[in-house]
């Protein structure tokens, strides 16, 4: 239901997004039946397609041409997909979007090469864009995403990490790719530098808010709503903002410390989820997300008024208040 509400916000982009969906399927097509099956497995499981949406909306501030915009929108979604396939191997995740992960359906080797293949297809598609600036921005973004993944591994199970550690991690893990989606959409449509900069910053701030809400939902949603076990972040050793805030309670800190790196029973997992859900950590994390949301909205206030800004504002509010 919530996903349907989100799609209604950008229903005017429906024809373009249907085109991009077909392009995504074509992009992962190969002569290997195994690669086809593994790639389509995640693609057809759905997703919010936030990155292509932001590419297209950013393009509305310039000379919008869907045949040009899709050359950026498709690779950005492919890069995101590839990162999810790799993430599921690193985190040993069994379920994503309510379905078995690629590594669970097949194995780690198939998952790693599937992720590599999808990433390679993304890079192949972006070569259609003849702009060194676009390639420079995308390559730097990819480097930072990889650095973020390594930092996440290094930070696993570190209950005593500080807020800056968390923020630098989600910046690289999520915010930069959304920021680049906005900036690249602006650049390929020929917007001016000032507009592109505001869109880049909008993408960064809304990306930070998006990830914080994602981390909150890991504790406030049910297994069914998430399509995976609630509390997965903690189980995998990822210390997110609700945990960082909740640990200031000495009793909660002691409980978290005692259960880190432990193979939890289902009852133990649910008890930890309930403890965090009922702690002050959730409200404190929401406050932090709200700050980034307001910063994102401020960037929109500098842009030319029109349908693009209206839709971005609605999506930003939805992301900041979403329940899935």
Structural class: mainly alpha
Query: Helical proportion?
Result: over 70%
Helix count, DSSP H or I runs of 4 or more residues: 17
Which fold name corresponds to the CATH topology of the largest domain?
Farnesyl Diphosphate Synthase
- Mind summarizing the main beta sheet? 2 strands, antiparallel
How many structural domains in the coordinates?
A: 2
- The strand count comes to 2
What does this structure look like?
GO terms for molecular function: heptaprenyl diphosphate synthase activity; metal ion binding. It comes from Planococcus versutus. Its EC number is 2.5.1.30. The protein has 324 residues and is mostly helical. It folds into two domains: 10-130, Farnesyl Diphosphate Synthase; 131-308, Farnesyl Diphosphate Synthase, CATH 1.10.600. The protein has helices spanning 2-9, 14-27, 33-43, 50-59, 66-90, 102-105, 108-126, 132-155, 163-188, 193-220, 223-226, 232-235, 241-246, 250-259, 266-277, 281-300, 307-321; strands at 95-96, 99-100. The chain has a two-stranded antiparallel sheet with strand order 1-2. It is globular, with a radius of gyration of 19 Å. It starts with a helix and ends with a helix. 43% of the residues are buried.
């Amino acid at each position: 239901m919530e996903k349907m509400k989100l799609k209604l916000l950008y229903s005017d982009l429906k024809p373009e997004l249907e085109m991009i969906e077909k392009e995504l399927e074509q992009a992962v097509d190969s002569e290997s039946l195994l690669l086809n099956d593994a790639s389509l497995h995640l693609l057809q499981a759905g997703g919010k397609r936030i990155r292509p949406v932001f590419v297209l909306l950013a393009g509305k501030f310039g000379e919008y041409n869907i045949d040009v915009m899709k050359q950026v929108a498709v690779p950005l979604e492919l890069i995101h997909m590839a990162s999810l396939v790799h993430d599921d191997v690193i985190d040993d995740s069994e379920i994503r979007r309510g379905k078995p992960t690629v590594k669970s359906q097949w194995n780690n080797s198939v998952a790693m090469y599937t992720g590599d293949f999808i990433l390679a297809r993304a890079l192949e598609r972006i070569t259609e864009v003849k702009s060194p600036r676009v390639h420079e921005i995308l390559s730097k973004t990819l480097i930072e995403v990889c650095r973020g993944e390594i930092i996440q591994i290094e930070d696993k199970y570190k209950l005593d990490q500080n807020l800056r550690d968390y923020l630098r991690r989600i910046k690289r893990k999520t915010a930069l790719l959304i920021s680049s989606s906005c900036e690249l959409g602006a650049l390929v449509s020929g917007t001016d530098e000032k507009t592109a900069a505001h869109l880049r910053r909008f993408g960064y701030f809304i990306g930070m808010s998006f990830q914080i809400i994602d981390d909150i939902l890991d504790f406030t949603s049910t297994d069914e709503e998430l399509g995976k076990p609630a509390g997965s972040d903690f189980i995998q050793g990822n210390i997110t903002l609700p945990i960082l805030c909740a640990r200031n309670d000495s009793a909660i800190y002691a409980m978290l410390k005692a259960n880190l790196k432990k193979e939890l029973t289902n009852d133990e997992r649910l008890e930890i989820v309930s403890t965090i859900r009922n702690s002050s950590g959730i409200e404190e994390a929401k406050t932090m997300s709200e700050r980034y949301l307001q910063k994102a909205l401020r960037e929109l206030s500098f842009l030319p008024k029109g349908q693009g800004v209206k839709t971005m504002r609605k999506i930003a509010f939805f992301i900041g208040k979403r329940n899935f």
